[in-house]
Amino acid sequence: MSSILEEIETKIAGLKTSTTKSNVGVVRETGDGVARIEGLSDVMLNEMIEFPNGVFGLALNLEETEVGAILMGDNTLVEEGDEAKTTGRLLSVPVGKALLGRVVNTLGQPLDDKGPIKTETFYPLEKIAPGVIKRRSVNQPVQTGIMAIDAMIPIGRGQRELIIGDRATGKTTIAIDTIISQAQLNKAAEDAKDSNYRPLYCIYVAVGQKNSNVARVLNTLEREGAMPYTTIISAPASDTATNQYLAPFAGAAMGEWFMDNGMDALIIFDDLSKHAVAYRQVSLVLKRPSGREAYPGDVFTCTRVYSNEPRV
Amino acid sequence: MLRASFTDGQLDRGRIASVVDSILTKKPRNCLKILEYYKRLLRLEVEKRHARIETAAALEPSIASQISLNLARRYGTDLTTEFAINPALLGGMRVRVGSDVWDGSVRNRLERLQQQL
Questions:
Q1: Could you identify which of A37, B101, B102, B116 might form a hypothetical disulfide with B95, taking C-beta atoms 3.0 to 4.6 angstroms apart as the criterion?
Q2: Can you give the pTM of this predicted structure?
Q3: How far B14 CA lies from chain A's nearest CA (Å)?
Q4: How close is the nearest chain A Cα to the Cα of B2, in Å?
Q5: Buried b (16+ CB within 10 A) or exposed e, B14-34
Q6: Closest to A39 (Cβ–Cβ): which among B40, B99, B109?
């Protein structure tokens, strides 16, 4: 009994609670998922900002006297006059094999009632991409399972491929078929105990879709037994623009973990035009100058999301 | 305008008055908005040089003057100080200068303990 007490006492002694220095600002304006904060003189671009009630924001606009931040979580909890604090951290998501078979939101929180995600590793949403020297040339195909594609326009691991077309022409179907095909190949290699085969894990990022569509995709994948190799990141149309904007970055971060650990992953962004629309909404509310069709001038920098995923 | 309001790195009342006078006499377009923005910039400048010291209970004058002296040593002699009593801190002290905050209050420590546990 006394040993337990001693243990608790040493733990309490280990908790340091000295005076802290922090950099704070005052919320001057909030609405539409965006807050404008006065002060915060030491804030860095893309740094997390802590608001009261456990709401976090991301500093996107650094101006002379103000900081524009997008809010994550319930933005009705942030009010004018609230104090905002810098954290010195970048937004990170949980990564690792624990995410396979799960449906998560942009922040990596589970949406599928299968309990908490047990992982120790977190990756920042934005990382410096591997350089040209590190990138390996494409030398292994991704079998989509669709003969017309595999025969005429094969896709390789370490490559990116745009699927373009009118609505309801089967773009998502190609992606889902590929995931199922990969799952079958992975399973076959596992059953044959083929140690040379590098399994291809799949990450499906649903941006701005209807929840019913995501549920249908999930059902299809579960029925075909593809979920053990797949992660679904869902930022549906009912989610905030912030979450829809960040979801592809979260998917890329989860893919980067596989890349860094010598594994292969297939990331499907469905679809990136919704991502651009979410970014446009955020940019317009932040009063950034707009260009054609009111998209911000730097909307093309969003392409970094899929340019940064080579095979190394 | 803001740059013209300083002498030797400190805000100068006379210069501010002359800047405002010249705008009022010249009356450029949107002069009210210009003045409002100028006022806001001045307020931010004043806040940068103003320390607000919050404590749970009233401080003894000797301790208060010691704190003011120490802050002035750190931030320069033109720092103004303001003392306030905030029982919500429970104990300890919270000093805010510009957007820097030193928080040694019991409330902050309890909140951080809560986060760590």
A1: B102
A2: 0.84
A3: 24
A4: 13
A5: eebeebeeebeeeeeeeeeee
A6: B99
